[in-house]
Amino acid sequence: MKDLRYLDPHRRATWLELFFDLIFVVALGDASEILNDAHGGHIPPHEFVRFVLVFLPLWWIWVGHTIYANRFDTDSRQHRLSTLVIMFLLIVISAQASAVAQDRYALAVACYCGARMIIAGMYFVSKRKHHDRHGFSTTVGTVFAVGAAISLSSILLQPPWSYLVFYAGILFDMAALVLLDRRLHVVPAHTPHLVERVGLLTLIMLGESVISISAALANIAWNRSNVIAAVSGFVMVSAIWWIYYDSFHLLERRKLRTGHSILYSHLFLLIGLAILASLIRHAILGSLDPRDFRQLAVAGTVLFFLGKQYGYYKEVPELRPYLLSNTAAVFVLTALVLMLPLGLEATLVGLTATMICYVLLNLRYRHLVRITAAAASATSQGS
After folding, report:
1. Burial of 361 (0-12, 13-18, 19+ CB in 10 A)
2. How far apart are CA 303 and CA 133, in angstroms?
3. Which of 77, 91, 128, 243 has the smallest count of CB within 10 Å of its CB?
4. pLDDT for 2 beyond 50
C-alpha cells in the first residue's frame, strides 16, 4: 500500500507521534507526584509501589499504540482521530492517580480498557495492510482485546481482588506477546522508527527532569546547599543523556524482530528516570530523610541501568563484556557513596560523579563502537 509508512525507507516519527509522547509524559508527571510528596520526610514503601502500579498502565498504552503505529500507521484521518481519543483517555487516567474511591478507580479502569480496545480495533481494521501477513494484526488485536476484557472485569470486584484482576489483564498482554514472539516475526519491527520513538520519549523524560529542577528552585530561599544540589542535578541529567545516547545509533543498525527487548526494557529505564528526577527535587528542597533518599537512589540507579543496558546486551552481543564491567563498576561506586554519612546534596554530588565515571568508562570501547557501526552499515548496504 502506498500510504503504509512501514514501507518508507526514510521514515521518521510523525508530528502526531510527538504529540502523543508529550501527552504521555504529562500523564507520567501526574503519576510522579506520588514520589514528590514526602510525608514527614518519608516516602512509605506502599507509595513507591503505588507509583509503579499507576505508571504501568500508562506505559502499556503507549507501547500498544507504538507497536501498532510502527507497522500499520498510514497517517489517515481514522488513525489520527483514534490516537487523539487515546491521548484524551491517558489524561483522564493520570488525573485519577491519587484516587482511592472505588468510583474513581472504575473510571480509570474504564478509560484504560477503552484505550486498549481502540488499539485492538485499529489492528482488526488493518489486517489487509500487509496483504498475506494479516494474521499478525488479527493475533495482536485479539490479545489486546482479551487483556482489556480481563482488566475491565476488575470493576465487578472489591479490593484487593479488583487490583489483582486488573493487572492480570496487563500481564496477560505482555506475556502473550512474548510467547507469540516467533509468530510476530512475520511483520518485523521497522527498526529505525522504533528506536527513534523510544529515544524521543526518553529525551522528553529528561526534559521533565530539568523542569523538576526549575520547579524546585522556584519558591525557595537560595543557599549553598540547594545551589550545589541544583547544579549537581543538572550535571547528572546531562551525564544520563550522554550515557543513553552515546552509542544509541548502534541499535538503529540492528535488525530487530519484534522490538520487545527495547520496549520492555524501557519500562525499567523510564521508571528509573522518574525516580532520579524525584531524587534531585528532594535534594534541592532537603525534604527527604537521608535513609529514604538512599533507598530512592538505589532504586533509581538500578532501574535506569537495567533498562538502558538490556537492549544493548540483547541486540549488540559484542558489547556485553564492556556493559557488564562498566555497570558493575558504577554499582560499586554508587554503593560506596551511599555508605558515607553525607547530607542530601553531597550524596547527590557523589551519585553524579558515578554517572560521570560511566561516561569515562565508555571510552574503553569507542573503537569497538566504530567497528560495529561500520560492519552493520556494510551489511545493510550488501542486503
Report:
1. middle
2. 37
3. 77
4. no
Mean pLDDT of 18-36: 86
Cell numbers that stand for 236 in this block: 547528572
Write a three-state SS string for the chain.
CCCCHHHCCCCCCCHHHHHHHHHHHHHHHHHHHHHHCCECCECCHHHHHHHHHHHHHHHHHHHHHHHHHHHHCCCCHHHHHHHHHHHHHHHHHHHCCCCCCHHHHHHHHHHHHHHHHHHHHHHHCCCCCCHHHCHHHHHHHHHHHHHHHHHHHHHHCCCCHHHHHHHHHHHHHHHHHHHCCCHHHHCCCCHHHHHHHHHHHHHHHHHHHHHHHHHHHHCCCCCHHHHHHHHHHHHHHHHHHHHHHCCCHHHHCCCCCCCHHHHHHHHHHHHHHHHHHHHHHHHHHCCCCHHHHHHHHHHHHHHHHHHHHHHHHHHCHHHHHHHHHHHHHHHHHHHHHHHCCCCHHHHHHHHHHHHHHHHHHHHHHHHHHHHHHHHHHHHHHHC
**Do 197 and 70 contact (CB within 8 A), yes or no?**
yes
Predicted TM-score (pTM) of the model is: 0.90
Question: What's the rounded mean pLDDT across residues 231-243?
Answer: 94
Across 246-265, average pLDDT: 84
Q: Which three cell numbers stand for residue 313?
A: 546486551
Nearest-CA neighbor of 192 among 376, 13, 16? 13
Of the candidates 83, 139, 382, the residue with the CA atom closest to the CA atom of residue 258: 139
